[in-house]
Amino acid sequence: MYKIAVAGTGYVGLVAGVCFAEVGHQVTCVDIDESKVELMKSGVSPIYEENLEELMRKNYAVGRINYTTDYQVAYKDADAIFIGVGTPEQPDGSANLSYIATVARQIAESVEKDCLVVVKSTVPVGTNDKVEQFIQDFLVHDVRVEVASNPEFLAQGSAVHDTLHAERIVIGTESKWAEEVLMGIYEPFHLPIVSVNRRSAEMIKYASNDFLALKISYMNDIANLCELVGADIQDVARGMSFDARIGSKFLNAGIGFGGSCFPKDTKALEYIAKQQGYELKTVKAAIDVNKEQKTMLYKKASKRLITFSGLKVAVLGLTFKPGTDDLREAASLENVPLLLEQGADIYAYDPVGANNFAKVHPEGKHGRGSITYVSNVEQALEGANVCFIFTEWGEVKAITPEAYEKLMMTPLVYDGRNIYSVQEMEEAGVEYHSIGRKQSNRGQGKGQKHHELQTIGL
Ligand code: UDX
């Protein structure tokens, strides 16, 4: 059992802390925000993650996890301090390391016994060397402090599961002692451990995330070509997926990748390369394709409709993916302002992300357009002229093709997540546009609303 302190209680820090407690370690999570600390003590998680609150309460009740703003008390006799604070993207694409620097300084001033500092946050290659030097420079007591890299690969929405059942743990150390401490901490997880040097560990994180981003952008690129040549991206992906060298995951074409990692980490690695005088062409391509892809459906719809002014537009899903309330880099954030600018009256539905979205786009009039938040899919679709699907929530997938035809005034659907079969939408009488597949033609279905599409000039 190790005495562990965790700096930062965001997705990375809090989930790591809770999972360390769950396998038996003694954990103290540190955050500067007093109200957040009180909230967590009462068993409430500041983020939405499956099973997280349950494990927070269970481990708090048995005294294996605690929360504090007092970093000195948490750090002074810890065996290991994990840093999980944010490294937000700066305008030039580089990572902002000021939160890491603040924590490093606090550690240097607080530790009173030998301690391993473990950087979990995603940081540019070479940062851990600098953090170690920084801590040594400011160290108050005569103790051994080393820095190790331990990048995090969890996905939002399945963070607890991903941590407890990770496919691999990557540790980057520069001494036998550091390696042994980290091996010991991860021993109760019984997971494969990849032990490398610090710089390789830092690079594994970027290389993995950017490879996945590239995979998605590649499929989106191919999807756009599929549309032009009459192929179907889902069939193409299925055919590719049987090749074990390609694999079956992350082949879903759509409206591009969002979230807190892929957009940030692709830009960060491109920036790192540029600093070395090297152009990372593949990653640049992933970024460029993604930028175009996010508004692909809007562009299609704009060509089709001439104007959105006076149209009721249903927007289904606002978050960057299902299972999270996170909106960072979500396609909705790019498309909704465009629709509002064009005078659309938007009726938006998201099971958990609507409150966050309303902070950016409050309910009511926005220039010529307006936005209203509704509490179920049916309310959004009722009387709508156009529907955009941005997130594949279960609640959205549960809606049948017939329901679109029945509820919408004019059943015209732009699906950014390829939820439906083109044929079934066509049979239901819905004009259906998706990504990398043929469009279903209106007028061929058994639905009754085609004349209405025509009467409003559609
Ligand atoms: C990702 C990585 O999966 C994780 O390992 C890393 O630690 C952090 O970044 P996350 O951002 O939570 O996790 O979500 P993920 O499920 O990977 O999805 C990212 C984006 O890619 C979403 O917008 C999703 O919709 C999109 N995506 C994913 C696709 O468009 N197609 C796919 O096939 C898969």
TrEMBL record:
Region (Disordered): 437-458
EC code(s) of this entry: 1.1.1.22
Annotated residues for binding of NAD(+): D31, K36, T87, T122, K264, R328
InterPro entries from the UniProt entry: 6-PGluconate_DH-like_C_sf, NAD(P)-bd_dom_sf, UDP-Glc/GDP-Man, UDP-Glc/GDP-Man_DH_C, UDP-Glc/GDP-Man_DH_C_sf, UDP-Glc/GDP-Man_DH_dimer, UDP-Glc/GDP-Man_DH_N, UDPglc_DH_bac
Pathway: Nucleotide-sugar biosynthesis; UDP-alpha-D-glucuronate biosynthesis; UDP-alpha-D-glucuronate from UDP-alpha-D-glucose: step 1/1
Any GO MF annotation of the entry: NAD binding
Reactions catalysed, as given in the entry: UDP-alpha-D-glucose + 2 NAD(+) + H2O = UDP-alpha-D-glucuronate + 2 NADH + 3 H(+)
Protein's GO biological process: polysaccharide biosynthetic process
Name of the protein in question: UDP-glucose 6-dehydrogenase
